[in-house]
Design a protein that fits this description.
heterodimer; A: alpha+beta; globular; B: alpha+beta; seven-stranded antiparallel β-sheet; five-stranded antiparallel β-sheet; 18 strands; disordered C terminus; binds flavin-adenine dinucleotide
Chain lengths: 353, 496
Amino acid sequence: MSNDLTSELQQQISEAYAQGTPLQIAGAGTKAFYGRTPHGEPLSRGAHRGRNKYSPNEHVNSAPSCTPLAEIEAELATHNQMLAFEPPHFGAGATLGGTVACGFSGPRRPYAGAARDFVLGTKILNGKGELLRFGGEVMKNVAGYDVARLMTGAMGALGVLLEVSLKVLPRPAVEVTLRKDLDESRALKAMNRWSGLPLPLSAAACDGEHMFIRLSGSTKGVKAAGQKIGGDVLAEDEQIWERLREHRHGFFESATPLWRVSVAPGTAPLALRGKSLLEWNGALRWLKSTDDATSMRTLVERHGGHATLFRGGDRDGQVFHPLPPGLMQIHENLKRAFDPACILNPGRWYTQL
Amino acid sequence: MQQSEQETIARRISREELVRELRRFLRDDAVLYAAEDTRPYECDGLSAYRRVPWLVVLPETTAQVQRIARLCFENNVPLVARGAGTGLSGGALPLENGILLNLARLSGVLEIDPLNRTARVEPGVRNLAISEAAAPQGLYYAPDPSSQIACTIGGNVAENSGGVHCLKYGLTVHNILQLKVVTIEGELLTIGSSALDSPGFDLLALMTGSEGMLGIIVEITVKLLPQPERAQVVMAAFGDVTSAGAAVAEIIGAGIIPAGLEMMDNLAIRAAEDFVHAGYPVDVAAILLCELDGTNDEVSEQILLVRDLLLQAGATEVRTARDEQERLRFWQGRKAAFPAVGRIAPDYYCMDGTIPRGRLAEVLNRIAEMSREYELPVANVFHAGDGNLHPLILYDANTPGELERTEELGGKILELCVEVGGTITGEHGVGVEKINQMCVQFNEQELQQFHALKSAFDARGLLNPGKAIPTLARCAEFGAMHVHHGKLPHPELERF
Ligand SMILES: Cc1cc2nc3c(=O)[nH]c(=O)nc-3n(C[C@H](O)[C@H](O)[C@H](O)COP(=O)(O)OP(=O)(O)OC[C@H]3O[C@@H](n4cnc5c(N)ncnc54)[C@H](O)[C@@H]3O)c2cc1C
């Protein structure tokens, strides 16, 4: 299925640039909940399709940004390969572009790397409608500034992603998940202690009562590590990692605002009110809380971290952790460098971006 | 060279005045301007380009770096950062009218955090010193450029350096968490965090590999990894380069990610063997060094797999290092390969293109053809698993015209890399060296976007002017020069 709308998109952006019309970039809309309330004329890439170029022997997949993530993952699976950052879909129809634009990563992130770590190249339209290509399809590339990675997680504020090349990895031969009864504070210590040892860990989480550890690798390697760590082997159909990744775990069934707190993994449990769930060895802490954002952020900042209002709450307020003035200035300058008329997803990050 | 870009900067202070200002807060021996003191800084690892610096400044603290930057900003003085000067693209080449900021004295390991597996260090810390400092905790810093005993972590970040183990563990960009950066205005920014992400754009990735063009890195928090339980290296010999290249593709295609997968051709093997007696077979066309690491059981399993694959791919001999000493010796030969090649020719010129791994054999054969055509020997020793080539062109700078021929051959090799879908630099950076080839890899609008990005950090263009990104005027000139020499390079490329 091929339907290249590049020139139509280019024209729409050039006109918006000339007239200063704000555009909201949308894929399948599975991540519309994220960030500040979008506004502007919809720039839909929905119909922009093209061929997925997958080279299993090179470990590279290049696809138009509107390719469904599920389609790419299914194709990789036929060659026993995967997107190692295990991106969450957050709904049917999630696209490659939306995934990379949001920069979300799943359970394997602390061990394998984040979305940006796997982005090799991008083709984009900037805020003037110029078609630009950065990075490429090879593993190492330091020619020019790393704009391809800069685009990852920029939520479309610096350009519209048209195509993304990702590094893919072989699937591990075996995966086993262990469960141990541990509270948050003990789980934090245990997860980080195990992570400092040469063991084939690939995920670690704690729901407040249990610690979950996933091991990935060769049959023998996983077995030996499992004996070292101990705990009950979890049945595969529990799908714990998928439920955590997609927010289908019971913890996430709630109308309370959901905060995403990011700190150094070993940080002791934070004195924040609300129920929490830890992923990434404790580097990612989900918190259901109606607490005041400012006091929460002050505390998180003291631990060198930041807090995002991930779902719910006031979507017109400070959804993302405020930036110090020096960094905000650089952000504004960069926004102007890529999108001089400030038409691409304006206000999705901060009022001035 | 980059004269035109430099001359556009109108300095507003004389050297004498600037020295006086600097000595208000720096020791006398931290401000060097006499030719005998500054000459040691006239080049980096790319010695074909030399320029005696106008002024060399050696700060010891972040606060001093901030004051130096502010002085430069106020007086329109260009500023070039320098780590150990091992860079291979002339990135730290000094200017005739600016400061060379030597960061070697900011060399403290500030903190090792075993629980969070991080190290916080100053930019002048040598790459290997981080792993040494972390070793008592059973941890290490994974990216290991062959220059790791000398190069600094600041330089590594500025170049996004790689190394033998980057195939499995990633490049510098994958192994750092936070930077402290001094802007040209003297402001201190914290980019990234001790967490795994931070709000806003990914400035951490943007700073990595930015070649001193966006800011001065004054502190780095790196990720540390647990030392693997076991590491084992397998060496395979091949009768021709084509089958060695195919073996690389086979291993990667089979779903094995070795910790390192390196290739050396005959010229490089003989040079290394003469130099460090690594125990390589010297009568073969190429060897592959394949390192496997992990738990004991995993490594045993993978060695068997890899041995089979190598033999199937036509290896004439496959040897597993018998013990740790032999493993280290095999690697010593590889890591000393550049200096070893330096012993067999008066000069060598190291290239750094990356190509799709499946095209290795083809590209190596074409490089061999070009080497014959230009009558300049080329040795190959490189990160095969990543498709990152390092052709070393052997030449003699004292033979008139030979450097020019070498540069032309180098340019051709890089253009070949772009032609097969690769890039002109995998890890050494653009610097002054590959600035013309940037015009081949990027079009006008892309280059302009790079310049706009640079202005977001450094609107006056005072940081490392004339490096990394060519002006459009320069590309026009280069294009004209190319037509002059014959035909346009790769008219089949859509972007050119
Ligand atoms: C024998 C040999 C082997 C090598 N092997 C490898 C290899 O395997 N892999 C690899 O990637 N490279 C390799 N290199 C290249 C080189 O060692 C790396 O590029 C290294 O990272 C440079 O570090 P440095 O401290 O010497 O930086 P320098 O050469 O001093 O500077 C390099 C660039 O970084 C900038 N810079 C330096 N410090 C800072 C700072 N604190 N803030 C901002 N900008 C800064 C400079 O302006 C310059 O543009 C090798 C070099 C040699 C000579």
